[in-house]
Design a protein that fits this description.
By secondary structure, the protein is α/β, with parallel strands linked by helices. Helix content is about 40%, strand content about 20%. The chain has two domains: about 170 residues, Nucleotidyltransferase, domain 5 (2-Layer Sandwich); about 170 residues, ATPase, nucleotide binding domain (Nucleotidyltransferase, domain 5, 2-Layer Sandwich), CATH 3.30.420.40. The structure holds 5'-O-[(R)-(carboxyoxy)(hydroxy)phosphoryl]adenosine and zinc ion (ZN).
């Protein structure tokens, strides 16, 4: 049964046409292991004010298992979601009645957590008589630099996190062209698996980076999968086997461990840098626009990767824009922004998305995904 709209007829007409005034949006993010809520205000000219941001990262909950356990994540989201939303609303000083809409991640991601976030968002929206907006998590990442910087369309985006690794041309809101993607594991997943193999704990990226600082990046010649193939697809699954072999090859002294981490990181850096160089050379923003290159996602925290991407941007005449760390990793401000931009553009049904269901797989470039449905679908969901 289709839910009825909580809005009156005149309100409904305004929402459908698009909103040109300042919008105040509550965003909710629960697709992986961060329970997050944020309130933002977006002016008609696109300027954003973040009124509050609350994030609980479920580190302690998952640490004993050396990875995110979906059932534990879902339960933790269910316990934390209400309080996180309340805390974000209180800190923002905004009354529920003054919100313009409630946005929640509706996919892709771990289905249990996504459902918790959507139910929370729909309940708040219904109770406050506001539209609910079902947001694509990847659209949130794609728009995240626009939270704090002047980052006009179009731009080239490298999204590198624990669940995703892809190049996208972002032409505008809803205009995403996938240029390449991992065909198996995401780069962050490779960091996490390497850390697990070496007994370094979870999440693996920061631990591997720390230990790599004392190692020799040339000590072991790890494979650079797909590096010499044309195109922008990547593959990181094979690296795990290579790391396992290197770890078994001899005693795992501190020095050897540092060499493995440094050499592994160097392989990832080489692949991301070379593929970024190719993507930037081919990227034509048109109309005399500057080449903007955005890197987002948790792996963008890695200093070796960031500095390699800086040099690539420099040599290709591009400008690297990286959101601050708290907006690289999963957060609710980017979900609120994606909702605000959707609302402002008027691309909504009359009840908002109150009838929307969760979508564990939800590629940004749906046309490309339809043409080749088997492309880049990994164990943990669509990496596209
Ligand atoms: O964006 P994010 O918080 O969540 C996902 O949507 O996946 O990214 C988390 C991923 C993890 O795989 C983590 O190991 C990786 O980002 N990561 C790093 C670093 N910090 C986080 N990888 C490499 N170096 C880092 N410093
Ligand atoms: Zn994410």
């Amino acid at each position: 049964m289709q839910p009825t709209s909580p809005l009156g007829a005149p309100e409904r007409r305004r929402y459908i046409r698009g909103m040109t005034r300042t919008l105040t949006i509550l965003g909710i993010e629960t697709s992986c292991d961060e329970t997050a809520a944020a309130v933002i205000r977006r002016a008609a000219d696109g300027a954003v004010e973040i009124l509050s941001e609350k994030v609980h990262t479920q580190l302690e909950e998952h640490a004993p298992y050396l990875g995110v356990v979906p059932e534990i994540a879902a339960r933790a989201h269910a316990e934390l979601a209400d309080a996180t939303v309340r805390a974000a609303m209180v800190e923002s000083g905004v009354a529920y009645s003054d919100l313009d809409a409630v946005a929640a991640t509706s996919g892709p991601g771990l289905i249990g957590g996504v459902l918790v976030g959507m139910m929370t968002g729909k309940a708040v929206a219904q109770a406050a008589g506001k539209p609910f907006l079902a947001v694509n998590h990847l659209e949130g990442h794609a728009l995240s630099p626009r939270l704090t910087q002047d980052c006009a369309f179009p731009y080239l985006l490298l999204l590198v996190s624990g669940g995703h690794c892809q190049f996208l041309e972002v032409g505008g809101l809803g205009a995403y062209r996938r240029l390449g993607s991992t065909i198996d594991d995401a780069a962050g997943e490779a960091f996490d698996k390497t850390a697990k193999l070496l007994g370094l704990g979870f999440p693996g990226g920061p631990a591997v980076e720390r230990i790599a600082a004392d190692g020799n990046p040339k000590a072991i010649d790890f494979p650079r999968p797909l590096l010499n193939r044309p195109g922008l697809d990547m593959s990181f699954a094979g690296l795990k086997t290579a790391v396992a072999r290197a770890a078994e090859a001899g005693p795992l002294s501190e020095g050897r461990m540092a060499d493995i981490c440094a050499s592994f990181q160097a392989a990832i850096v080489d692949v991301l840098a070379e593929k970024s160089r190719r993507a930037l050379e081919a990227f034509e923003p048109g109309d005399g626009q500057p080449k903007r290159f955005v890197v987002a996602g948790g792996v963008a925290a890695n200093r070796a990767i960031r500095s390699a991407l800086e040099s690539v941007a420099e040599t290709t005449g591009a400008r690297l824009l990286a959101p601050p760390m708290r907006h690289c990793t999963d957060n609710a401000a980017m979900i609120a922004l994606a909702g605000a931009e959707r609302l402002a553009s008027g691309r909504l049904g009359e009840a908002g998305d109150l009838g929307a269901g969760a979508r564990p797989r939800w590629p940004l470039d749906e046309a490309a995904a339809k043409l080749d449905p088997a492309y880049a679908t990994g164990r943990r969901g669509a990496k596209a």
